[in-house]
Amino acid sequence: MHQDRMLTVGAFSRASGLPVSALRYYDAAGVLRPAHVDAVTGYRWYARDQVVRARIVAGLRRTGMPVADICRAITADPVTARRIVDAHQRHLETELVEATTHLDDARDLLAATTTLTVNDTALRAALRSVRHAVADNPAWPALHGVLFDVDRAVLRLVATDRHRLAATGVPLEGVVGPPAQVIVPIAIVDAFLGHAVTAQVGVSLAAQRVTLGNLDGTPIDALYPDYHALLAAHQPKTWDMSTPDSLPDTDCATATAPNLLTQVTRREAGPGAHAGSRDRLILIGLDQTGVRIGDAPRSVAFDREYLTEAIRSFGDTDLQLTFGERNTLRLAARHAPDTVALIMPVRLDPRAA
Description:
- This protein is α+β, with helices and mostly antiparallel strands and 353 residues long.
- It folds into three domains: 3-108, Multidrug-efflux Transporter Regulator, Chain: A, Domain 2; 114-224, DNA Polymerase III, Chain A, domain 2 (Roll); 234-352, DNA Polymerase III, Chain A, domain 2, CATH 3.10.150.10.
- The chain has helices at residues 9-16, 20-28, 51-62, 67-75, 78-110, 120-130, 186-193, 227-233, 257-265, 304-313, and strands at 6-8, 36-37, 44-47, 114-119, 145-151, 154-160, 164-171, 174-176, 180-185, 200-205, 210-212, 215-217, 252-256, 281-287, 290-293, 300-303, 318-323, 329-333, 336-343.
- The strands form four sheets. It has an eight-stranded antiparallel beta sheet with strand order 9-5-6-7-19-18-17-13. A five-stranded antiparallel beta sheet has the order 8-4-10-11-12.
- Strand 17 and strand 18 (329-333) form a beta hairpin.
- The N and C termini lie far apart (78 Å).
């Protein structure tokens, strides 16, 4: 054969849609042998009229047909080849019916609804404490709501926009059903917060529907980030909060939320503070004396609005503040350690110094 009328392995691979590795395999299996093999170099050449046959092989293999059946089909007469293809299609159709049945059974098992009974006042307070951290970035639809995470007798509410996170727990007065994680859209949360307060509220969580009091809707169909790992990474060291002498010298402080809010919302910058921190940013330092505002050693910059909203979410309570990994600021209610807010630091622009 004249090599100028034939195709190299690479050219034949591109024309047929079969990778070179597959061509070697089908050659060894006797399904698609090259038209010519150089006796010296071992290089393989394919005839142009083999392209159609190779495309048939590629198409049949994509359907999962066994190689032995493919070999029979492309070497048999047209009637026999058609019967082989039809038999494989009937096999696939049977498998599809069986798979659909198994999937339907799995959906039924996974469609279990978890129903909760919660104190209305406690649920509203908890939702308000995390509401500020809900995202509105269209690129992250999973973060456009509040995660309702039910495990045993506790409902944990979580919200994050990737720059901050808020989490709190709500005791359950009753729960029926398995553990569940459902993202409740913020529109439903806001509508619920705007309704009148009752003694108890029923919550129903399922994959296709969520009910919050007398409101219902479709939950957000997305996977929520692993907030457990994030909270664990920023868990502070254990110390006795009632004994000031036991506190570490740095990276930890206590403060009452109202007093801290007054400090944070005060717009006057301290001596030597960066000009860029006067409005949008605020510099925070922590030690035994409390929270330091301003450009002092070991201070870290944070978004002032984010910090203000986080402090407000705690109401009138004592706070424990710590720096975690990468100077993430952790705020926790002293008498309710499950109520936590995390705020990522902001890198200062050196030109603002």
